[in-house]
Records
---
Amino acid sequence: MFFDEVSAYYEKLENTSSRLSMVDILSALLSKARPDEIKNLIYFTQGVMAPPFEGVQIGIAEKFAENAIAIASGHSKGEAIAIFRKTGDLGHTAEELIRKGRLKPLSKKHLEINHVFDSMKKIAGTSGAGSQDAKIGALVELLASASPLEARYIIRFALGKLRLGAGDATILESLSKAYTGDRKAKAELENAYNICSDLGKVGYILSEKGMKGIADLKVSIFEPIRPALAERMPTAEQILEKMGGRCAIESKYDGLRAQVHIDRKKGRVRIFSRNLEDLTGMFPDIAQAALAEVNAKEAIIEGEAISYDEVTGEFRPFQETIQRKRKHGIEAKSQEIPIHLFSFDLMYLDGEDYLGKPYEERRKKLESIINGDGFIRFSDKIIATTPKQIDKYFEDAIESGLEGIVAKDLLAPYIAGARKFSWIKLKRSYKGELSDTIDLVILGYYRGKGQRTEFGLGGLLGGVYNEKKDVFETISKIGTGFSEKQMQDLGNLLKKSKLPKKPARVEALIEPDFWVEPEYVITVRADEITRSPMHTCGKNGDDPGYALRFPRLVSDGIREDKSADDATTTKEIIEMFDQQKKIKVDG
Ligand code: ATP
């Protein structure tokens, strides 16, 4: 497949303002790829070199891209910088300069998607002395054969700024349409995606083996499973009723979720976060313990990594666990803050996929392969049959510094990648306030006024994710809870994410000063959820939408462990609103 055709589709995607037409355009594009091209095409469209959990960065810095554009187009670096200053987009810069003409085209090769992607791989894989020159050289070579439009996307991709706005769900729906003729196979494709977290792999299997191959896909070690998530309910009575009168109740630890993949024969371990980032380097002690303490050839287990004082039996606050995020001094930190893994699930063991087995069986097996008295423990749990037992367990959990409890359906399978009632969380409720925090995607921002002028940021427009429609809906403006440093950092970050117009997957009735790519998540706490005609969250026809009253930032800036699709969903907001109403009536 020629890259000029891909680029023409990308341009159409950029220009559309509706999500449905995005699916039409993308499915037309995907249907043209050969099986040996589909993976590369999907990764390129996602703007990544490999499935995101591999963490492969292409690594071209702006100033190197400026150099490459100047050399390939036969213009001066000054000219490139001048256009970049004006447009803020090096993709456009490359396009404009190449359109103006180049001194001497190096090659008349008609670029193909596989060639472009392979060159990008080469660029990403080049390291060591002289690597920047080699990277620029490879980029110049590509640009020398590129049309102006192709140059736009090559440069944006190389900078990690392709930003076509197509999220996972949009790509899955487009694959369904491309290969089966309609969007109905999306749910099955999503199941496959939930167990391998690799859209390229899903596309490849679909194009090679059709829906049969998709149905046969099994868990593989070192391919992270998208995590199961918990629903919320406000009382023990309701939880127990929903669970059919009997369930497991576990402590909810406030640390970092860790999915641990273990291959003892190869002595290899990888640890993935809730957001499927590789955390292995952050937790060397858990990686070591996984090899020493898990009695299996191969296993995938899941738990919460948390800073825990064995002597006093005290759980340390989240802030202490997260300090491990710092790249330096991990060795020293592991002495100072020992981290334990409180394991709570088993997904795979010695060639057998455990996802479909009931919780009770998974947990029993988990307890049979680990001793539970080393660095890897088990989440504390009871089996409850009365609300009184749950309430007592909850109070004790809060008393010992935990976040709350998670109730688990004894008979339910592990439901990867979805928030279902097989897990229900109950957290400490704050008097007079919403009992839970809300994770918002930043959709836009407002200019700073008065004292905030210097930050270039006065407030944010926050949104939630509507899973059903695969769009982001606005719910609130947020202007409080920020420190000066957070303002400054956010201002700098968002400036780079600015978009010329509202992205196709954002639905809004209000207009911020600047739209941004929906990619950053923050956590806020609010007093209440109210109905509002201003916001599109949950808005149905003429009925009002939902909004937050007095939202304030509570996360330490951006939540690095969450991506836009992990934000609180519209469905959760509506459920929280209904629960809040109920508490008001009951209370
Ligand atoms: P939250 O901010 O409440 O942790 P979340 O969206 O990250 O929300 P949920 O699925 O809603 O995740 O809540 C479950 C989370 O609680 C898991 O992601 C995990 O990190 C954490 N957790 C702590 N203890 C447990 C446990 N025993 N079982 C399951 N999850 C647990």
---
Amino acid sequence: MYTRLKFDLPAEITAIITRLEDSGHQAYLVGGAVRDLCRGVTPHDWDICTSARPEEMLALFADAFSIGAKFGTVTVPTQTCGQVEITTFRREGPYSDGRHPDYVEFSTELSSDLARRDFTCNALAYHPLSGLVDLFGGLADLEQGILRSVGEAKARLAEDKLRILRAFRFQLFLGLRLEAELKKAICQLAPLVANLPVERIGGEMRQILAHPEAYKAIRRMRVTGVLDGVLPELAACYGLVQNQYHAYTVYSHTIVTMKHCLDDLEVRTAMLLHDLGKGVIANQSADGIRRFWGHHEVSAQLAEAILRRWAWPSRSRKRIVTLVREHMFYWPDAPSEKALRRFIAKVGPDLVLSLMEVRKADIIGLGPQGKRRLWPWNILRNRISAMLEAEEVFSLRDLALDGNDLIEHFQLAPGPLIGQILDQLLDAVISEEVTNERRALLEYARRFVPDGE
Ligand code: ATP
Ligand code: MG
């Protein structure tokens, strides 16, 4: 059960383990941290499991606190290892609803705690003196590059369907292949992913999309049937043929754009969602060419709904939805400075370069025909970068005056009129009708102030 593998643990982790043991309890490092140490990777968070009960841990560590939602878990803040979570050994009852165990009870044995974990590589524990505890062959699986369930795959996935998505995530991040029984079980249980609470799906998707090769996980989800439950809007685009401008179906195009886009969570997520509207409005026009007029707007609405159901953080959600909504911009000729400034102002100076990246991936996703469009794209991107660097005026923030200046100068009452005047001023500066100087702007603003005020 023990191997002689030894790791240098951070002093604060060893101290927590020693403290628990000195008080008569068992304690081990467990889960992802042990797995990462075995892979030679520095863990990003440290979890400890113990035979001590939460109230005993709270009494032992002065700064410890517990969060009600996390049953049996006590958090200890550290200087070098972040918030260390210490959890009492537990044993889980059956999962009759396929989401939660019917009961969770504290246990005094490490083995029962490891047995409830999802995959062999996540069911490892480590003790600074006795070494690695490997009851399910997790180390050998890691060495051979295999992701394997603890126990019978189908039963373990049926208990908690989220493990299906966790399998795709660990496969991607750890570079593992799915063990044959696990893969078979995923295919058999795929339809049940649709029953998971949507925000749990979102939590996994957000992590999967953070990986540069997230497209591989999406493709695996499609092949195994899991995509129908995770993102039915994309599954509907599979096999959807486009027109002469496109080498790929809508689904394949989406995958290609995800593969070739900038390594950025928001850009990659925008690529995943940018053409979903095509699945809804696969119009056939009179000339027989399949067109998707207005698909960017429908895609934006779908993106909004999907990111909401995935409980995506709202600021990032809004940015991604804007990327999707604006992704179809196109200039046959070189746009004027003024047009470009308007475009940057509309999209937002902090989002426009991401949008350019979305456009680039979309062009690459046309297939060989896209190549000749990359040169104009390049010129446009360079012009936009130069304008951003020149700190031109793109938003109200950049104006040489603000609402208070208007209120004081024209003796106005605060209200919607102030915002309207500021918008007009911004418009005038962008169109080069007035220079961005305080005096000039006040002079120009006079025309928007009603008589007698
Ligand atoms: P990461 O490096 O991504 O944080 P991790 O292995 O730490 O990976 P977590 O989701 O943080 O993953 O979970 C911590 C541990 O808890 C896992 O290693 C695993 O042992 C166990 N675990 C988490 N979720 C489940 C689950 N749904 N079913 C069974 N065990 C789970
Ligand atoms: Mg973790």
